[in-house]
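User: Predict the structure for this protein chain, please.
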Amino acid sequence: MKRTLLCVVVVIACFHFGFMFLEAFAWSTQFVRSLTHLSESAARETVGVGRNMALSNGFLGVALLWATFALREREAYSAQWVLLSFIVVAGVVGAVTMRNYRIFVMQSLPALVALGMSWLARPYARTEDQAIQQIIEIERQILAINAMNPRAIPETAKGAVPRGQHPKLLGLVEAKLIVADNLPKEMRVGVFKEPGKSYDAWIRYSNARNLDDRDPGGHGMAIKLFNVAAETESSNVTQDFVLFDSPVFFVGNPLQYVEFEEATLRAHGKSRSETRIAFLLNYYWRHRKQLKNLRNAQRSDVIDPLAIRYWSMTPYQFGSAVVKYSAKPVGEGAVPVVVERSKDMLREAMKVRLGRTDAEFVEFEFQVQVQTDARSMPVEDPTKEWDEAVSRPITVAHLRIPTRQPFDTEERNLIAENLSFTPWHALHGHRPLGGINRVRQAVYESLSEFRHALNHVPRQEPNPPTQAR
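Assistant: Here is the predicted structure, written as structure tokens:
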């Protein structure tokens, strides 16, 4: 298929070189006038127009050959689609305006054939397993690039290779998760099986991408519970909940994830405006709904990471039910602390919040939203928000973060950098569901191993906060 496509593209390019010759040197001949329906006098008067059209066709032919032979496979695929689509439209317009269907046959039809063949031979994953491997390859490239770029390393990393996702640490805090009393029987699942039971926890707050807190972007809240009393999916005695300050994910399925990662790689290292253009041209023009989701997630109004709500975005097993998780600040914790705007203002806000002496802790309600309709609350499409008016979140536990804890220390930052979080550190009763979570299982595992190897540190689960003091 690829070889045949190559031949078709070369033929189309040669056609355009032929058009260029006719328009530049034979514009007023009877053959060209039979195509353009121009009189002899009109053809002589518009020779300049013909030569201008010749330049356009010549550039199209050269651009097609350049895209096919000079670019890498995926860049060539994108460029071919743009150029061939332009040729199809130009042929249709020419056939209509000149009232000559032969223009469509000679120009648009071969381009349409090439577009179909290009799509069939597209250099992207066709299966979920292929998608996972391609995502891992791209993420490892980005991680390796960041390892060589001091400007991509947060100050808290102290020169270590940062994680691929959520690299900037805002703070690692110790906390307790206390299972709610009077839980309905159907909610007594996994770590929430015993009302009143408490678990020690680490919570890592982070920026999704940005190193400057003033820039719009997403924020993460990753929770690791200790002394979980059952076998987990990863054979650890910890349970992770990975949350984000948006209720929906930014891609819909593993195949789209590959395209998004490819766009991320192409935009890597560019300015903010260049990055937006790169994402628009390489991904979002095909996925406009997801562009809206991303814009909503690129929040610029966050001034206190302890005063905003976080969601799991993707669904999870909850005994016999399917749920999404969220963590919602309550009481005075829902009122943000205001500090001076700076590149580290979110960490500064956490210092103020946790340095207060008039409160014992900052509290979040840990909630589950139960799937009540598989169609409007899909498992396999995390870009679709589950309506809380249809299924109201249920508080199953309380997260309490003690104040007056010294979280802004080199020792605490080192623990945070070496931590690994994944939705698959989970009890079987809280098993992650959906294609995006299956991607995360392999990708998070591979990238964590790769990052720890680059940093020359062992990859292991940490001690609980009580043992880390």
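The first helix runs from residue 2 to 25.
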